[in-house]
């Protein structure tokens, strides 16, 4: 894997250290997450964040474990870091950090106090909500180490305040149980029990959200580090509180061995692929509700079917996890209703509210069968896939239907609903409703029909009707989508801006957006790439981290994805960069014989800049294209891995 490590100039200065984040997943949707500096900058940061029935229903437990070194002369040196609502940062333990590194995907810190060096390693027990934190004396000593357990128990999206009840603490052997939900265990436990008031999260303030909370100082562990190699360790875990995990040092060793196996099984071609393989692993989870699922992004997303299917090839086929992928495709197929794939989003209930997730599902199944030769799965799912086509021909929810006039797919447009991947809403109103016939939806429809022809032929069944549907849609696409501007319309047959949804006359939207890339990039794309057109698209949209969602010279362009929730949602698809779109852009260029050899330089460097070892959800549309959104995003990682691996 690529080397990810920082010295004192990055670690010891908050602009660098507190804006680089690490993630250690537990394989169930929970995680440990924080910054290089150790400062908690988000409400989502913590050493034990536990997933509920679904990955989206997470709760923060152990917020931090603040180390203090007691030197032989009696001086106490605090190694933790907190920011307070007053604006003060105290303590400032990051100023003593001499090194931070990710080693086999696990974070490691080293603090230096003269000739005394203390190291911390952290890991989660794979498949269980359990974190192990190991402190080791590297040099110097003897010293005494104290570890303050700072806790809460709350929804990851909220805060807990001291004006409510204090967390319940029950003493148990070697520590305490907090709120009956998670357990702390380590040496020489001393209960404390007091509120720390006004802990500040600077990233939440920047996102226009409430930035402060109160945390519960539950107590402290302590141990002697007599000489180099001595350790003091703490465990924290939820679920099966009576089932003691392995020793912390063993948890770290187990996690490290597993990460190495995951990377080795993918047989990466280079260090970047190895890093992306481990990044991809973070999103593949197993829960009590699903044998295999995909977390769309950390720290705040759960499972979304659209993200899962776009990510499928990169997360599963490019990492030699086809067996798990097979399980996932079968379980998602069981959610089909009226020809639509469930979008089991973060609301806690099953929803059917996308026009494109089902079409990405057709694509994922076809890619699985094509890459693996798993004809049995194709045969098993074929009736369900044919049912998707039949339902779209008959018409399904939200006015989604095949237009009998041309064979293209249209969405009727329901007020308050955005059905494409450009699904942001502000105060319930879609920013980009894209009513009518969106270009990428119809590219996916044509691609899905062609893939279904292949699966039907492999099953020895008649393909005549499907071929006719496909040919008709291709013909109509080639007639309707090329625009006088020199690129493709983003939507055709939509309502005119001055008319209500479903009104007349029809309007064709020629704003320069990246959705058209799918018309050239998909395996069964309706168009052959044209170099001149692709260069026009690149001139308006391409940035170092991927294509923008809207060109800067278009009306409504927003170059910074920052501010309040409404401001961020308003700019989400109005110029913001989406790294996942690099995949379709690269595919289109390769099909058009355009070199992309130098295209990966910036995004590979990005692996060390924001979410360490991973790729962000979004970035600003204007230079310097600062990363935004989730630091760890499934489809961003998956598409970069896929398009690098298939070159």
* Arithmetic mean of pLDDT: 95
Number of helices: 17
Q: Which class of secondary structure composition applies to the elements?
A: alpha+beta
Query: Strand sequence of the main sheet, in spatial order?
Result: 1-9-10-11-12-19-16-15-14
Largest sheet, if any?
9 strands, antiparallel
Describe this entry's structure for a reader.
- This protein is an alpha+beta fold and 647 residues long.
- The protein has two domains: 28-258, Beta-galactosidase, Chain A, domain 5; 267-645, Alpha/alpha barrel (Glycosyltransferase).
- It contains 17 helices and 34 strands.
- It has a nine-stranded antiparallel β-sheet with strand order 1-9-10-11-12-19-16-15-14.
- A hairpin with a 6-residue loop joins strand 23 and strand 24 (409-410).
- Helix 5 runs antiparallel to helix 17 (634-645).
- The chain is elongated.
- The protein starts with a strand and ends with a helix.
Please provide a brief summary of the model.
With 647 residues, this protein is α+β, with helices and mostly antiparallel strands.
Attribute tags:
647 residues, alpha+beta, Beta-galactosidase, Chain A, domain 5, Glycosyltransferase, 2 domains, 9-stranded antiparallel sheet, 8-stranded antiparallel sheet, elongated, 6hp_glycosidase-like_sf, AGL/Gdb1, amylo-alpha-1,6-glucosidase activity
Secondary structure layout:
Elements: E1 4-6, H1 8-11, H2 14-17, E2 21-25, E3 31-35, E4 46-51, E5 58-70, E6 76-78, E7 81-83, E8 89-92, E9 97-103, E10 106-113, E11 116-124, E12 130-139, E13 143-155, E14 169-172, E15 175-178, E16 182-185, E17 190-200, H3 202-206, E18 212-225, E19 231-238, H4 248-266, H5 271-281, E20 284-285, E21 293-294, E22 297-298, H6 305-317, H7 322-333, H8 357-372, H9 375-394, E23 401-402, E24 409-410, E25 425-426, E26 429-430, E27 437-438, H10 439-458, H11 464-480, E28 491-495, E29 506-509, H12 518-521, H13 531-541, E30 542-543, E31 546-547, H14 565-571, H15 582-591, H16 601-605, E32 618-619, E33 627-628, E34 632-633, H17 634-645
Antiparallel strand pairs: 1-9, 2-3, 3-4, 4-5, 5-6, 5-13, 7-8, 9-10, 10-11, 11-12, 12-19, 13-18, 14-15, 15-16, 16-19, 17-18, 20-21, 22-34, 23-24, 25-26, 27-28, 28-29, 30-31, 32-33
GO molecular function: 4-alpha-glucanotransferase activity; amylo-alpha-1,6-glucosidase activity
InterPro entries: 6-hairpin_glycosidase_sf, 6hp_glycosidase-like_sf, AGL/Gdb1, GDE_C, Glycogen_debranch_N
Domain Glycogen debranching enzyme bacterial and archaeal type N-terminal: 20-226
């Amino acid at each position: 894997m690529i080397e990810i490590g920082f010295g004192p100039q990055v670690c010891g200065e908050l602009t660098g250290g507190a804006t680089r984040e690490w993630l250690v997943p537990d394989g169930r949707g929970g995680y440990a997450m924080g910054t290089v500096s150790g400062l908690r900058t988000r409400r989502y940061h913590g050493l034990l964040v536990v997933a509920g029935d679904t990955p989206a229903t997470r709760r923060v437990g152990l917020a931090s474990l603040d180390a203090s070194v007691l030197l032989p002369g009696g001086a106490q040196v605090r190694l933790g870091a907190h920011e307070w609502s007053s604006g003060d940062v105290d303590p400032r333990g990051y100023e003593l950090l001499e090194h931070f590194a990710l080693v086999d995907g696990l974070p490691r810190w080293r603090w230096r106090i003269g000739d005394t060096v203390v190291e911390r390693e952290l890991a989660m027990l794979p498949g269980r909500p359990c974190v192990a934190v190991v402190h080791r004396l590297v040099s110097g000593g003897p010293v005494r180490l104290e570890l303050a357990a700072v806790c809460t128990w709350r929804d990851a999206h909220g805060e807990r305040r001291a004006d409510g009840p204090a967390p319940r603490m029950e003493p148990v052997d070697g520590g305490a149980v907090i709120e009956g939900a998670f357990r702390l265990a380590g040496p020489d436990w001393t209960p404390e029990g007091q509120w720390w008031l006004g802990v500040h999260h600077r990233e939440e303030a920047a996102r226009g959200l409430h930035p402060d909370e109160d945390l519960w100082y539950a107590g402290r562990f302590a141990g002697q580090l007599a000489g180099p190699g001595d350790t003091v360790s703490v465990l924290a875990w939820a679920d099966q509180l009576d089932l003691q995990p392995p020793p912390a040092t063993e948890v770290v060793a187990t996690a490290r061995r597993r990460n190495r196996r995951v990377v080795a099984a993918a047989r990466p071609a280079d260090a970047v692929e190895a890093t992306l393989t481990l990044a991809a692993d973070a999103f593949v989870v197993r829960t009590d509700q699903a044998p295999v699922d995909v977390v769309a992004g950390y720290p705040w997303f759960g499972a979304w079917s659209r993200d899962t299917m776009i990510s499928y090839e990169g997360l599963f086929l490019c990492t030699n996890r086809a067996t798990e992928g097979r399980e996932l495709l079968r379980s998602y197929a069981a959610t089909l209703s009226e020809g639509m794939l469930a979008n089991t989003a973060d609301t806690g209930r099953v929803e059917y509210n996308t026009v494109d997730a089902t079409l990405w599902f057709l694509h994922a199944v076809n890619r699985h069968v094509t890459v693996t030769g798993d004809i049995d799965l194709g045969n098993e799912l074929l009736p369900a896939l044919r049912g998707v086509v039949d339902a779209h021909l008959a018409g399904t929810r939200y006015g989604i239907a095949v237009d009998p006039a041309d064979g293209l797919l249209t969405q009727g447009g329901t007020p308050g609903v955005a059905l494409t991947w450009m699904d942001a809403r502000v105060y319930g109103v879609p920013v980009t409703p894209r009513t009518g016939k969106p270009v990428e939806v119809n590219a996916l429809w044509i691609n899905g029909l062609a893939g279904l022809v292949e699966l039907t032929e492999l099953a020895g069944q008649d393909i005549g009707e499907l071929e006719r549907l496909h040919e008709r849609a291709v013909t109509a696409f080639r007639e309707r989508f090329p625009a006088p501007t020199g690129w493709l319309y983003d939507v055709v047959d939509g309502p005119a801006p001055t008319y209500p949804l479903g009104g007349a006359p029809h309007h064709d939207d020629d704003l320069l957006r990246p959705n058209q890339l799918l018309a050239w990039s998909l395996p069964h794309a309706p168009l052959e790439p044209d170099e001149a057109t692709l260069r026009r698209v690149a001139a308006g949209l391409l940035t170092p981290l991927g294509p923008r969602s809207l060109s800067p010279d278009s009306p409504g362009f927003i170059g910074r994805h920052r501010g309040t929730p409404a401001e961020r949602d308003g700019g989400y698809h109005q110029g913001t960069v989406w790294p996942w779109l690099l995949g379709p852009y690269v595919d289109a260029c390769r099909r058009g014989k355009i070199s992309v050899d130098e295209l990966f330089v910036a995004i590979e460097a990005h692996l060390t800049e924001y979410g360490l070892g991973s790729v962000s959800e979004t970035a600003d549309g204007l230079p310097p294209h600062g990363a935004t959104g989730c630091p760890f995003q499934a489809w961003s990682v998956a598409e970069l891995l896929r398009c690098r691996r298939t070159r």
